[in-house]
Amino acid sequence: MHEVPCSSAVGIDDPxxxxxxxxxxxxTSFADLWPTVRAHCDxxxxxxxxxxxxxxxxxxxxxxxxxxxxxxxxVNSGTDALVLLLRACGxxxxxxxxxxxxxxxxxxxxxxxxxxxxxxxxIEPDSYAIDPRRAQQAITARTRAIMPVHLFCQMxxxxxxxxxxxxxxxxxxxxSAEAIGMRWNGTHAGLLGAGGVLSFFPTKTLGAxxxxxxxxxxxxxxxxxxxxxxxxxxxxxxxxxxxxISNLTVIPGTNSKMDDFQAAVLLAKLAHLEHAIQRRADxxxxxxxxxxxxxxxxxxxxxxxxxxxxxxxxxxxxxEVADRDALTRYLxxxxxxxEIYYPTPLHLQPCFADLGYGPGDFPNAEAACEVSVAxxxxxxxxxxxxxxxxxxxxxFYSEGRRA
Length: 403
Known about the structure:
This protein has twelve helices and 13 strands. The chain has 403 residues and is α/β, with parallel strands linked by helices. The strands form three sheets. The protein has a seven-stranded mixed sheet with strand order 1-9-8-5-4-2-3, with helices on both faces. It has a three-stranded antiparallel sheet with strand order 7-6-11, with no helix packed on it.
């Protein structure tokens, strides 16, 4: 991951606080945005269309401009975005998709829900992203796609993965759910292959107040197919051969439309996204400065060398620590929220038992699940709260707690 240099914002005069530090809250920032949110919501109410309406289209246009994507398709969750993207890319029953063994469960279940077969590969221990060498070893005659995941603050090695996909005639699809704002040599995450996705789950860098997601792509065919799939297989150029008919279902689709109230919230927050990204970077720098010499903190977010310039964005501040579970209990006892990303690697999840994987198959993924923990990181977090979190971690290890 990326170590952000300290900036002047880290020195904000904000004394340590003794109260609880939630893992996530947006109470303050949302209150500040409320007048703008309400104005957008009033427009939705006045129009009287609450799903897949004008506000969604407005948000899609704004997000396309922000990311540089030619096409943005708003849907009701990041998970559905993955499923529909895989289907729009032509995944057929039984096709294999190579995914990392360390990720949120939706990375792999989306393949299953699109009627494909997930095939796991181990990760790079420093970036937590799929290791291109391990991905290459997983390719078989049935492999159709490779789906890297951009986790926590930086992108996977897209140069190596793109070369691998081209060499073997595979589709490159990005699980960029966490990656808004991340760019590879100027190109936004999700736009380096056939397409990618964004999740707007409330904790995300750009978060809604419920579930929402989007598909990003520069491919018009993928975009048109995804637009049809999200609306029961209707709409788009798929109906050009049936003039005068607007409700004919030409492909089996689903109901995965973004609702306009979520689009209203996202539009209001999109205008402040750059500030939110910078605030997260400043907070990450504060953590790095304070935890650099703490015994028991074994790894802080560090940059992984890539062949081109990349733009990291801190969605999660993930550290590797000694005696992780005891530390999280200690922090919880003192009112500090944490999150484990991820407690069980994908290949050991019960729902994939039939794939035949077992313990020891992907040691880097399994190790990450044992020692990593995410600390609070969101724009409402104060430097005083960072001080409190870091002081508690230092105290935990200074008291000889299995450092």
